[in-house]
Write a structure and sequence with these properties.
The protein is mainly alpha-helical. It contains nine helices and no strands. The longest helix is centred in the middle third of the chain and has 31 residues, at about 95-125. The chain is globular, with a radius of gyration of 19 Å.
């Protein structure tokens, strides 16, 4: 396999985040609302934000999002590519099981690396729906990180770490691992009925990444909702306490609260991320031949 820089995946993810951040903001705000507030639609949240605070408001927290991509996504994609390369040393492609295992391990590493930026992203994107006296008022990701350490100490950087790491393992397995699975399967077998055979190129990358985004959204939704509520709170509730309280007050449906904006964000985000990643890899190979 060709050698690519470890950071290339983080750059691709950051490029994708610039396009999909408003959808991420809407998803976080939907997930942060409890049972006492009727759940608004994604479009209603975005329209309300724009009408009240202007178009720039839907990019609130972008600095934290880019910080997250250059920690969480950089590590999870870079580690996965390195593991995949190691498992392909004998020239044979690793099995689907090995790829999923590698994706899970890489996801866990990314979840740990990106946890502080995840906290900042949740707080910055959900700040406007809090009462004024409970707002964090972070100006950007850097000042937010400094404030987080000042107010909560180093332990504050690990808030929700267990839930976030679990979600990261599920996300990388169901998104990155499944992308390689869908891509390989579509290359090997023609589409039934129409007998269409995919070739390695832009259209294949779009279809495989869209399928991976749908898979990732569904698998990760419960952990994503719980993670959002833990990171957005100022209390010290455990994941189990949040789960039990939410089940009691809202029923099992709370685990898929915000699924539509999550999919509308993760679907395009996954497509853009993998398309950018594939193009960056091709560009790097042409610039720096192995």
């Amino acid at each position: 396999m060709p050698n690519y820089p470890f950071w290339l995946g983080g750059v691709a993810a950051s490029m994708a985040a610039c396009f999909t951040h408003p959808l991420d903001l809407a998803k976080v705000r939907m997930q942060s609302l409890g049972s006492t507030v009727p759940s608004p639609s994604m479009l209603k949240i975005l329209r309300h934000s724009i009408s009240n605070d202007g178009l720039r408001s839907v990019y609130t927290g972008l600095s934290a999002s880019l910080m997250r991509q250059m920690t969480y996504s950089l590590v999870r994609l870079g580690s996965y590519e390195e593991m995949k390369k190691f498992m392909s040393e004998n020239g044979r492609s690793p099995s689907a099981g090995k790829l999923l295992l590698a994706a899970g391990v890489a996801g866990g590493l990314g979840g740990i690396a990106g946890n502080p930026a995840d906290i900042l992203l949740v707080r910055m994107t959900s700040d406007s729906i809090r009462p004024p006296e409970k707002r964090y008022n972070y100006r950007n990701g850097i000042t937010g990180l400094i404030s987080l350490v000042k107010e909560d100490g180093q332990k504050g950087l690990a808030r929700g770490l267990g839930t976030n790491t679990t979600r990261a393992v599920l996300m990388n397995t169901s998104q990155v691992g499944s992308y390689d699975f869908f891509k390989t399967t579509l290359l090997q077998y023609p589409i039934p009925l129409v007998n269409y055979q995919f070739h390695d190129g832009f259209f294949l990358h779009v279809v495989a990444s869209l399928a991976a985004g749908t898979c990732g959204t569904t698998v990760c939704s419960p952990a994503d909702v719980i993670r959002t509520r833990i990171m957005g709170s100022s209390g010290k509730a455990s994941p189990i306490e949040v789960l039990v309280r939410s089940l009691r007050e809202e029923g099992p449906a709370f685990m898929f609260k915000g699924w539509t904006p999550a999919w509308m964000r993760l679907g395009p985000n996954t497509v853009l991320m993998f398309v950018f990643f594939e193009q960056l890899k091709r560009g790097w190979s042409s610039l720096v031949p192995s």
